[in-house]
Write a structure and sequence with these properties.
Layout lengths: L17 E2 L7 E9 L5 E8 L8 H7 L16 E4 L6 H9 L3 E4 L11 H14 L3 H4 L6 H23 L1
Parallel strand pairs: 4-5
Antiparallel strand pairs: 1-2, 2-3
InterPro entries: Transposase_11 (IPR002559)
Protein name: Transposase IS4-like domain-containing protein
């Protein structure tokens, strides 16, 4: 009926999409990820490309499931949180201390060489594992729930591969 036109004009890009601040304002999404010390994903979220990383810190911490250890109650929170300069805000440092988590966050405006790269590479490797799934590297889905489902499926496949290599 309307050849070449959409009958209901509206958002053409889908949910959780915003202009990227680093890619000439092209629409995009961000994956936010918390991993353990071995690179196993613990929690993952999806936001628009224009959202700041630090706004997703507390929701990601709340999404971490109980971690079962050898004996006793399962841990609900990590002991330490390693993060890059994007999370360097006194507000978030105070909130982490209140939760009993020691923040190890690189300072903004300070030259590189803090030694944080010795532990941060695990997170970057986890993102590399995540983006080996081509449907996640470039977002083709308009619906955010479908992309979130693919993101969680990829994380579960990464966890399965980690389990296979550990035994």
């Amino acid at each position: 009926m309307f050849r070449g036109r959409i009958a209901r004009p509206g958002s053409q890009r889908g949910d959780h999409v915003g202009p990227s601040p680093v890619d000439r304002a092209r629409p995009g999404s961000k994956h936010h990820l918390i991993v353990d010390r071995h690179g196993t994903p613990l929690a993952v979220t999806l936001t628009g490309g224009n959202r700041h990383d630090a706004t997703q810190l507390l929701p990601l911490l709340d999404a971490v499931p109980p971690i079962r250890g050898l004996r006793g109650r399962p841990r609900r929170k990590p002991r330490r949180l390693y993060a890059d300069r994007g999370y360097d805000f006194d507000k978030y440092r105070r909130l982490l201390w209140k939760r009993g988590i020691k923040p190890v966050i690189a300072r903004r405006g300070v030259a590189h060489g803090s030694g944080l790269g010795k532990v941060r590479w695990v997170v970057e490797r986890a993102f590399a594992w995540l983006h080996q799934f081509k449907r996640l590297r470039t977002r083709y889905e308009r619906r955010a729930d479908l992309h979130q489902g693919l993101l969680e499926l990829a994380c579960s496949l990464i966890c399965l591969r980690r389990l296979r290599t550990s035994f």
